[in-house]
Design brief:
Elements lengths: L5 H7 L1 H12 L6 E6 L5 H13 L14 H7 L6 E4 L8 H12 L8 E5 L7 H12 L5 E7 L7 H4 L3 E5 L4 H10 L4 H10 L3 H8 L2 H16 L7 H8 L7 H22 L11 H10 L2 H17 L6 H17 L10
Helix pairs in contact: 1-2, 3-4, 5-6, 8-9, 9-10, 11-12, 11-13, 13-14, 13-15, 15-16
């Protein structure tokens, strides 16, 4: 996404927009920034917009770049010679990459304008390359700026953190993600759980466009429906409708996370709260909540959360999912208490 105005950024990242805009307005732009936050928080896109704002000579009264001058167009097209990028070469950012940057800065720029270096995955410096970067940060030179982008702020060297201003990027508002999905024609019954699963807009759009992932959302609903019917098995429902989950860790993780979200809805209902994700399944959620007490709702959720962590390791996925569904059937179908008996 190419941002054109500060207002667009403020809708998604209000604090970074306010801080960066104020720095420009007060002529107090720092020579080094660290943009830190979770994946999908638009750090890279906003770094590009910030660079464009520093380079544009035709800012309007709200400090928005004109988006039509040569500098703006080249930043938008990723071809501006004064906007330099560094990304990890393999697992690390190497010393040679930083030395090439230093050499570039030692040359006389053909463009009479600021030079901005954007470093992606800045937590992947090794000690040698990090020490080389410190030379630039200690003596940046006039009109030279660094923007370090990271999802792992605590992994940066203290010496780097002390020489840059850190700006935190929060997760995108789930409502914004839902709205964007609905604009693309995604039904709310899918937009809600997808937006709850990820705060990364691009990832959310990819899930919404993946028919198999949409089928998994339907499967979660069918599994919980089966827990209400004595002559229907949740395990058989699972195996009949989506065996692919058993051989695909990403899909298995998606299934488990959505099971967690649905179970949270049941717990929320037990607590008389209305903030549900699977809104279209409220009738089913109410019936399931009425079959169990709060302690079981919490226990089932805890088991799912533990399984979600275990999937990151080498486990027997089929056995683990079968056990999860078997325990759910035992808990919901053979429950002898109801919401009227709970505390």
């Amino acid at each position: 996404m190419v941002y054109r105005e500060w207002e667009d950024i403020a809708k998604e990242q209000a604090t970074p927009a306010r801080l960066l805009k104020n720095h420009i307005q007060l002529n107090r732009v720092n020579h080094a920034y660290i943009f830190e936050g979770e994946k999908g928080t638009k750090k890279g896109e906003i770094a590009h917009f910030f660079a464009k704002t520093l380079l544009c000579k035709n800012l309007d009264q709200d400090l928005n770049p004109c988006n039509v001058c040569k500098d703006c167009k080249r930043v938008n097209n990723d071809t501006h010679p004064n906007v330099l990028k560094i990304e990890p070469d393999g697992k690390f950012i190497k010393k040679e990459q930083v030395q090439n940057l230093i050499e570039e800065y030692s040359k006389t720029s053909l463009e009479v304008s600021p030079r901005i270096n954007i470093i992606y995955e800045a937590d992947k410096f090794n000690l040698s390359s990090a020490n080389s970067l410190l030379k630039i940060m200690e003596e940046p030179g006039e009109d030279i700026y660094q923007i370090l982008i990271t999802e792992n702020y605590n992994s940066l060297l203290p010496t780097i953190k002390s020489r840059a201003e850190a700006i935190h990027f929060k997760e995108l508002d789930r409502n914004l993600i839902r709205q964007e999905l609905k604009k693309q024609g995604i039904k709310s019954s899918y937009a809600h759980p997808i937006s709850q699963y990820t705060s990364n807009l691009e990832a959310a759009k990819a899930i919404a466009d993946d028919e198999e992932m949409i089928e998994i959302i339907d499967l979660v609903i069918d599994v919980y429906k089966a827990l209400l019917t004595d002559n229907q098995s949740a395990i058989i429902t699972f195996l009949e409708k989506n065996k692919k989950i058993l051989v695909d860790n990403d899909k298995a993780n998606f299934f488990i996370e959505l099971m967690i979200i649905f179970q949270k809805d049941i717990l929320q209902t037990k607590l008389d709260k209305e903030d549900l994700c699977f809104l279209d399944q409220k009738s089913i959620i109410n019936k399931l909540a009425d079959k169990i007490d709060i302690s079981y709702a919490e226990k089932a959720l805890k088991n799912m959360l533990e399984l979600s962590i275990r999937t990151k390791y080498n486990i027997n996925l089929k056995l683990a999912l079968n056990k999860l569904l078997m325990n759910l059937e035992r808990g919901y179908k053979h429950a002898t208490y109801s919401s009227r008996d709970s505390i």
